Amino acid sequence: MLELRQTVEATTDQEKKALQHVQEALSHAAVRPEAAAFLIGPREERIALPEPLFRILRQAAAMLSHGHRVTLAPVDKELSTQEAADLLN
Amino acid sequence: MLELRQTVEATTDQEKKALQHVQEALSHAAVRPEAAAFLIGPREERIALPEPLFRILRQAAAMLSHGHRVTLAPVDKELSTQEAADLLN
C-alpha cells in the first residue's frame, strides 16, 4: 500500500501559541461548529467545514497545542494508484 | 495509554459532495494557505490556521472525499491523565 500517512507537529513556540488560540476558538464553537470553521474559496466565498473534517480539526488542534506529534492515515482499504496520485498531487 | 484515536468518515452523499468542495478550495489555496482557511472566534474574529493544522485538514479532506475512513492519533509519547482529560472534555 502506498504511504499516505501524514505526520505533523508544532515546531515553534509561536506555532504552539497559535494552536492554543485555535483550540480555544474550537471549544467555544462546540455548540455551533458550522458557524465556527470555514474556508475561503477561490472567489472569496465562505465554505463551511463538513462535520467529519471539523472533528479531525478539533482533535488535531488539541493534540498539537499540547506538543504532540499527530498522524493521519486512511484505515479501511487500500488505495488505487489513481486515487493515490490524486491525493498526493 | 488512553485511547485518543479519532476515526471519521463521510457518511452521506451530501457530506462527500461538501468534502469535494472543500478539497477543491484547499487545492486552490496551496500557494497561499494562510489566506484560505480561517476559524471564526467567539468575537467573530478571523483566526488563521497554523500550517501543521492546514496540512492535516487538506489531507483529511482529500481522503474523506474519496470515501475513505481516516484516523488521527498521537504518535510519539503517552499522554498524562490531565492531558487526556483536557483533550476529551
Poorly predicted regions of chain A: none
Q: SSE string of chain A, helix = H, strand = E?
A: EHEEHEH
Number of helices of chain A: 3
Rg of chain A computed from alpha carbons, rounded to a whole number of angstroms: 15 Å
Task: Specify the oligomeric state.
Answer: homodimer
Which whole number gives the mean pLDDT of chain A? 79
- List the chains of the largest interface with their residue counts: A-B, 56 and 56 residues
Biggest pleated-sheet summary of chain A: 2 strands, antiparallel
The proportion of residues in beta strands of chain A is 15-25%
Helix % of chain A is 40-55%
- What is the number of strand segments of chain A? 4
The structure class of chain A reads alpha+beta
N-C termini distance of chain A: 17 Å
| Shape type of chain A | globular
Tell me the strand order in the biggest sheet of chain A.
1-4
Q: Which terms summarize this structure?
A:
two-stranded antiparallel sheet; 3 helices; homodimer; 17% strand; 89 residues; 4 strands; alpha+beta
Structure description:
The longest helix of chain A is centred in the first third of the chain and has 16 residues, at 13-28. The radius of gyration of chain A is 15 Å and the shape is globular. Chain A starts with 5 loop residues before the first strand and ends with a helix. The first copy, chain A, is 44% helix and 17% strand. In chain A, the strands form two sheets. In chain A, strands 1-4 form a two-stranded antiparallel sheet. Chain A is α+β, with helices and mostly antiparallel strands. Chains A and B meet through strand 1, helix 1, strand 2, helix 2 and strand 4 of A and strand 1, helix 1, strand 2, helix 2 and strand 4 of B.
